Structure formats: structure tokens, C-alpha cells
Amino acid sequence: MGKRSRKLVSKILGRVWRLFRRWLFLMLSFGPMPEHIAFILDGNRRYAKKKKLKMGAGHNVGFNSLVAVLRYCYELGVKYVTVYAFSIDNFNRKPEEVQGLMALMKEKIDELLEEEDTIVHKFGLRIDFWGRLDLLSESARLAAERAMAATANNTGPVLCVCVAYTSTDEIARAIKKSCSKKREEEAAGARGSIAVADLEKNFDSAHCPDPDILIRTSGETRLSNFLLWQSALTHLQNPRPLWPEFSLRNLIWAILKYQKAHPYLEARRRRLAKKQN
Amino acid sequence: MLPSLHLNSTLNCTTLNYSSTLLPLRGSRRRTRRDVANESLVPAAHPARRYPSLSASLAPAREEEERKEGALLPPPLRPETLPRHVAVIMDGNSRWAKARGLPSSAGHEAGYRTLKKMVELSCQWGIRALTVFAFSSENWTRPKVGSGFASPYLEVAANVCLVLYREGIRVCIIGDSSELSQSLQKLAKEVVDKTKNNTQIDLIVAISYSGRKEITQACQNIARKVKDGLLEPEDITESHIEEELETNCIPEFPNPDLLIRTSGELRLSNFLLWQSAYTELFFTNTYWPDFGEAEYVEALTSFQNRQRRFGQRIN
Asked: EC number(s) in its UniProt entry (chain B) (predicted)?
């Protein structure tokens, strides 16, 4: 078969696959759909070891998997996706691994912004970075700030990337801001104590609803200091596949499990909101 | 009116001290001989009031102690890898009762028995702290069935504290107990006061608790310190916040190593949000009243087999 006919077959198969996906997502959308999904991208290194790849290659494969999953999420109509890319605790790893991750981050951000047919341009994505950007390497920090500035006016779905982030650090920063503001308000004569809603306004995630689903791959069942406040009523899932192995099938199964638990979750969320007000 | 607690002043619970950083080895714990005359501390003034399973807990102290001293850690558990602090969300009492065609109160009674068993097992196996989620603040907005919906359940919870204090258990209560009745609040305060010197195991009972409110309360306390000039906002650290959290009542290990949630629900439900940063979560489909020794061993075995990395690499 010639090169041209192979290309044609590939194009047709690609189209058929996209049509099948659209039908599948339409079926799923008859049930309640999550507005916000959070991912802990666990298992890149174990995947590299399993496939006998060289050191650091697991994170590259993990990034490709992330782009695919983001594409499926946004096609499904999920408005917010948050990913735990790098924790403050991860700075304790070997320096070469940390440097490799910083370099990868810069490279992939540049790729997403500069290349033509990426999810940023296809979906009008807005990218936000949560965490202590001041702890990142200079080049990674500048790349993150460039991405936020370039996509600030986009009105499509939102990608929140947690880098140099821990939830306890986020809460501590929010408390610092709240206490500073309270002191200024009291100096101006205002009275009253800090409420739950006041504290929430000072979080990195202030403009984002709480996640509906939190997925941690590779079967580990812990939050590792990720979105502790925000995941009070989140449906927690821990599928067995490592992050590079997390596919469309796993995502659909995750959403089906969420849809099954949804009525109970929704009732609890309304009660929590009522109690806090 | 609930009976108030009268502890005999000669009752003295002392145990061997051991480093809080080491897990107790099997057989290293000794209980003191208790004064048998003091064993029945439920006043006879209210004999007619029925408390679930109270009679079972009035077994002679000596026999119970001998049984416990002989209790071994069941295989495959190893004492060096047991969690020091276990948290439990005791979910599923009502569904358990509904499945059996019983009223909810029967579910809570069965739940109380399960809790008592769990505290006993935790004591035997050397777990140093147990936090139980008795009643969330969100539960107050549940539709009430008749009057005094919460009252029997909370009385059961209070009786857990009443009965178990003499086992050397130190009871702490976290959450907002202002929504309890006056008599229950008074009883809770008495239990905490009377058991504060016990050292066998720390039992934290979370009543009307909300993790977000706890963090906000810590923020308010810190704001007060800032107002008084004791602290600058830019100097606030995570340690300052941890000191203000209610779980600081056990300063050695305020954060649970393992959190168990029964009845198949996969969420934290606003429980110990800050403290669960690195906690291993264990979810089981069993309803709380059915959570027995076998299920507890399964949870602890699962904890044992996990590789806790705290963000780092283990080669």
C-alpha cells in the first residue's frame, strides 16, 4: 500500500475515532457531569522503570498522557482541570531530577504556547499556576508567568497547574493575607471576626469551584498535601494504572463512578454551603 | 438528667513511659492493678436508665486484664509498622439498621458496640491515638424524624466516654459542642477533666466537627495574636497554625497515619482536612456496625503494605 493510501486510511480512522468519542461523550452527558476534576499525576518514574526507559523519560511520557487526558476532559465539557505537577516536598529529591523537571516544565509551556495545533489554541484554554512560584528556577518561573499572561483573557476551560505547591502552604498564605487584611480593617475601625468565606477568598483557588472528582493514579490512597481544604466533599478515586497508562477508558469509568455517587454528594454540598452561610 | 461522674481519688492509672517516637513492642505494656471496689463507677442512682451494652463493660477488671495481657498481635501485623494514630469515620449506622428493618437507634447502639471493641483492640495492639468522627456539623441540618433526633445518638456517644474512661483512656473532644444539650456539654467536660491524666490511649471524639471551621478558628486565634502584637502576619508559619488546631490536644502525633471510612463512601466529609495531608486513606464497603476485628486487621495490614514517601523517593 502506498504512502498516500496509508495517510488516507489513517485520516479516515482518525475521523471515525473522533465521531465515536463524540457519541460516547454525548451518552455520558445525560448524567451529571463534573465541573472540576483534579489529578495527582503519580507513577511516571515507576512507568519508566517498568518500560526500561532512561531516567527522566517517564515525565515526558507523563506529559503526553496529560495532554491527551486534558483534551478528553475539555471535549467532555469539564470546565476546570487541576493537576498536581510538583510539590514543595519534591524539592528534597535529587538535584538532577528537580532540575530535569524544571527544564521539562519550561520546554512544555513554551511548546503549548508557541505551536499551532495545541490544546491552548484549540480550546481557548486559560492556564493558571498555583503555588510558590518564587521557589522555582528562574526559567521555569518566567515560563509560568508568560503562560498566565498570554492566556489571561481566554474564555475557554481552565487548566490549573500546582507547582511548588502544598495545600498546607496555601492555607498558611491565605491565613497570612487574612490576618494582614483584618489588621488593616481594624485599624480603619471595622469589627467582626474572619469567616470561612473570608479565608477562602485568599486561596490560590479562590476563583475556582471545589473539585468534584480527585483522581490519584497508581493506586496510592492519600492526598499528599493536595487541595486538602477544597476536597472536603470531593469524590476520591485511586485507579491502579500508573499516570502514563491512564487512558480514556479510565476517565470514562471515573466519571461513571462519580455519576453514581452524585446525588448524595450534591445533597451534602448544599448542606455544607447552608451551614457555612 | 444524666448522672455526673464521681471518680475515686485513689484510682491511679500509671503505665510505663516510653518514647513517643517508638511504637510499643508487643508485651512491653503493663497495666496497673485496679482497685476492684472501684470497678463499677456508674452510679446506682439511675438503675432504670438503659444504656446499650453497659453490663458487658462491667466484667471483673482482673479477668479482663489477664485476657488482654495474653492478647497477641494477630498475624500478619507487625508492631513496628503499626500506625500510631488512627482516625475513623464511623459511617453507615442508619443504613445498617435500615437493611435489617430496624430503627436508626438500633444502628447507633450497634455502632457504639463496634466503637468500644475498636478502642479495646487499639489499646491491646499498641495504637497510641484514635480519633473518631461521631457527628459532623452538617448532620444538624438533616431532616429530623420526630423530636430529639440527635439526643439518643449523642447519649450513646457520651456513654462511650463514660464507660471507657476507666480503661486508662484519655478523652479529648473536638468540634463545636455548643449545639449539644447543657447536660451533655457538662458531662463531656467532666469526662475530659477526669481522664486528662490517663496515658493508655488518647481517644479524640469529634462531635459537630468541621475541618474548615477548625482551620478558620485557628486563623481567628492567630489574628487575635496579631492584633495583640504577639505575632506579625509575615512570620506566620504552618507550625503556628498546627498549634491552634484542636488536635493539638495530643501534641506528639496530632496527624493520623491511617484514616478508615466505612460504608463505601469515598470522601473526607470535612474531617481532619489539614491533618490528613499525608494520611493513608482506607475505604471499605462494610457498614460501621459490621466493622469488626477482621476488618480492622485488614485495614492495618493495608497500611503496613503501603510505601509512605512524603513527596520524596525511596530507592
From this structure: 2.5.1.-
